[in-house]
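3.2 Worked example (two chains)
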Amino acid sequence: MNEKMTVASLIANALGETDGNNYVKFLETPPDRKMGDLAFPCFQLAKTLRKAPPMIAKDLCEKIEAARTPDLVDNVQVAGGYLNFFLNRKAVTEAVIGAVLTQRDDYGKSDEGAGKKVLVEFSSPNIAKPFHIGHLVSTALGSSLERIYKFLGYDTVKINHLGDWGTQFGKLISAYKRWGNEEAVRQDPIDELLKIYVQFHKEAETQPELEDEARAYFKALEDGNEEVTRLWKFFVEASLTEFNRMYDMLGISFDSYAGESFYSDKMPEVVDIMRAKNILEESDGAQVVRFEDDNMPPCIILKSDGSTIYATRDIAAAVYRKRHYDFFKNIYVVGTPQALHFKQVFSCLDKMGMDCAEGCVHVGFGYVRFPDRVLSTRHGDVVLLEDVLTEAVEKTREIILQSATSKHVEDLDYVSEKIGVGAVLYAFLKNGRERDIIFTWKDMLDFEGESGPYVQYAYARGKSVLRKTAEMGIDYSGADLGLATSDEEYALVMLLNRFQSVVREASEKYEPCVVTRYVTELAQQFNKFYNNCSIMKAEDSVRDARLKLTEAACICIRSALNLIGVEVVEKM
């Protein structure tokens, strides 16, 4: 329901205009519901109308009251320089709840993205390295953004740009040839490869010539050396098996696993275009692109030995994606420390005359921090994601078993997994993406605070009521929603009405936390309604109206949680 457009049109008409779009953006939600549902500040009209804001508000109020019908707006009041609009609660409730129950899982969706393709590159772990907790930020954030854009009608493509190329493979090959054991690697590939990778860096501190050997091995890989390529393929296949176990636990899939190696044969064209555009310069034997006007350091395209770097491959990837997908947006969900890298890449694309530069967006994020440790793959001090998810499920199981309602949980393993994994995902998406995440079990698994379990419990509570209703054979389809307009009920209705605008805001800001905070507020308001408004003990007519409101709330909670990758459970 677009109540803002209705109110904006009333304002436009009172001003002798026909287009309410000019005033929608000025409408505000008062901090206290007693001040109305929407407020229009008249201050911006003072200069053009040459009147004091309170006088403008008074004049507009008189004109609107004389012309409006009571279909949606119930009352208009002047408060200083503000014009406060009180909506007709019955009309709003009927429109919102009617829409939710009719559209169900489609409620809040739009077709604004029809015909536009959005690529979301996320997760992108490095081959032959364990999937640690730090990888979850990109994975959870990117998956949520893809779901949000798809919800708004965009044609989305999920890309896992695997780190399967680069000098680190030269290091790994060097390490494997020195300390690797094929049987041990086959039995536990990621763990064994990590051990020798860490050992390489330890040895290189006293034997710097190992770094030269690693670079030579990578150059051999780029040149297609048969033995080196065979080892590289083995590392890739073993790693993908490990990664896919994690993605299955998270309920995440991808449309493309085209990693850095996929673009190895596409980089010569990039270099040729740059040479043709005369933007490549030599610097200490390397080939670089300079950005004097943008006050950025030069971007290396080819190193002195002729090998490529991340930037070369990312530029080739962007060019390929534009040609292959003709994207509207190409979103890179990569840590904030890489901001300069992407600024250089996008600037290079612009200098090359590629029209894909404008649609490329870097969505950065902060670090995962533990109170007493630092994550670093290079030094072997890693917190594995599998260990975290497993522990989350185990801790959730313990909490459920200790609760008074555990006897109602039919499949404890299933419920523990969905709540435990959901708790982790929620915790990673509840704050602004550029803020660091402080990992603590206490906050993550708090069934009473701002957490995934709290929101999931609100949903399960509502579904419990609806199950009881079905068992009693109650038909509430013809309920009079005009009987569900108390303050608690109306506040819940207005939250349900905000759903689509919340999703749109999340897409515009690339911030899933907008959805996470919304669904938390929705769960909190549903619990207030549940605790203050008797449902099953109310008169039949009131009960039926409240059952409709309960069903609508459950639908929206489930949809919102799905947008952040959290699955609901029917009982807990």
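3.2.1 Second chain
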Amino acid sequence: MDEVSRHVSQYDLQTRLHQEWIEPDGLGGFASGTAAGIRTRRYHALLLTALNPPTNRIVLVNGFEATLETDSEFYALSSQYYGPDIIHPRGIDSLIDFTTRPWPKWTFELPNGLIVTQELFVPRGKSAVFLRWGLDRSIEAITDKLILSVRPLISGRDYHSLHRENERFQFERLVINSKTNAAKNRVDWQPYPDLPVIQAGHNGRYMQQADWYRNFLYLDERERGLDDAEDLASPGVFTWDLKHDDAYWLLTPQTPQGISMPAAVDHGLWALLTPRELLRRSQFANRTIQASDAYLARRDLGLTIIAGFPWFTDWGRDTFISIRGLCLATGRLIEARQILLGWSKCVSEGMLPNRFPDAGSEPEFNSVDASLWFVIAVYELLQAAESVNLISESDEEALLQAVEDILRGYRQGTRFGIHCDSDGLLAAGSPGLALTWMDARIQEVAVTPRIGKPVEIQALWINALRIGEILLGRTEVDWRLSQSRFLEKFWLEELGHLADVVDVDHQVGRVDSTFRPNQVLAIGGLPFPLLEDAKARRLLEQVERKLLTPVGLRTLAPDHPSYRGHCQGGVLERDFAYHQGTVWPWLMGPFVEGWVRVHGGTSAVKQSARARFLEPLSKSFDSLGEGLTHIPEIADGDCPHTSRGCPFQAWSLGEYLRLDLLVLTEYTPGN
């Protein structure tokens, strides 16, 4: 290979390794991977299912090895990355195209001229993945033999963990008593006794041939300073004769969330299921709105929002921020109602939980702002649904009761020192905790503790008080006085911006004047701005100059001594950088809305904002050139603002959609 070809091949490999795709099932499970077909995370899997949707996620089938045998050659259709740094086999060398439209599809061109396609999709609402391999039959084969062989690579582990070779793994195929056609074309495994059975339906042949594949290397885990090696078991091999028919392979767990294995897994089943899924996906106005559907998942008998794929489940703060874009802006008011009603039942001592642990233990009430974001979301849902008569009287009562309980709990005082102080502002926090969205902790020590009265918490609190007056007809704390005290205590005239925290560590008069993006919530992102006119303009100009990037706002200005321009390295390095300069795309929502308000909110202003802020953000995250789908959690503060963190983040996409469909247009959901 000449130097130019080698450079191009390496570029393509690195690009494809960072182009991730996800196929969620709507239950909290998913299939995911990279365009290269190489797993780079422990979370990349072919069949990952949620035993207690959307939690208790386990990886059942991690991936597969695929080869095509002709009369004289074996051609790889898959690639694996092994330690220390070896790619084998090298299906990547034959990969000429990858697309996610309408679902992930790979196209390989083999040296003998054959074109082979591989595609997979996940039926919505079921824990299953359906794969198909086929030939471009317009090209005449130069061989009489075309045998596709596929080896499943299996673990059976918690999705946060890694798997190693061990004697407990059960390779044996389960005995199926039935003599039906389904039994002949179905293979069942149960890698460990406490896990569900894995069912594999197919239209080929299966041969038991147990083996271990050792030392897979996950590049993204290595980059994040985490354990990065894994061993996977392969119980046997499936074969198909592609000369006569396409290959079909259906994987599903034997659980209530799985698919009942049909008598035949073949073209007929593909022709039955794919049109349904195509029709469902075609009903979304564009790919970005379609992507929003990925985050809606089932919890018990209701719905919830997954905070991000592949490692988050549903979090309170993330749900109530992202619901405004994912559901309200897209007109999915029924889903928004169901989500908020479900959460309304969880109010405890005036607080909503911020996280439901995977292990089924008690919910974690460790956030001061999640409950306030809930109040905002309820208010905007009731506004959006008013003209369509969507909320019944009993549903409205339940939502308003939750709002009242939150306001009362915060006024009287609740967990972690959260209480309305004598000045009408909200105080919160105690040592060792990080109750705001800047919640990184290292060895139980908060990186940005922000104990006292954080600026965005006051914006949320005063908005919640105003909403309480509107919805409940009363309020025991006068929001007007609270807003007046806010301006007195937070505005730093000599600096031209708001303090980040006042009464720091509950010491009256102590001020943290660090320039952070939290202050933009006082001018945008919430129904009622706290700053207007000259003060708002001065603040906005500084935020734009110091914090704005094409992909979001930095969490700290570059001229600050604690600024970190790259969020990479091990856990400690990343946690230190997480809110100390790292860019967060979700903050673009409050910033752009504030910018529009400050500049008059006219149609021309909105058009200008779309061109200046929304379009560059969209282009930055359109990795495949097929139109924006997902937006990551974070990016580096320094150029070129490389994407970091969770690659598919709900509130990042939610705020983009809120800008696109509400703030920058005249669109009204529900009409």
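3.3 Remarks
The chain is about 30% helix and 25% strand.
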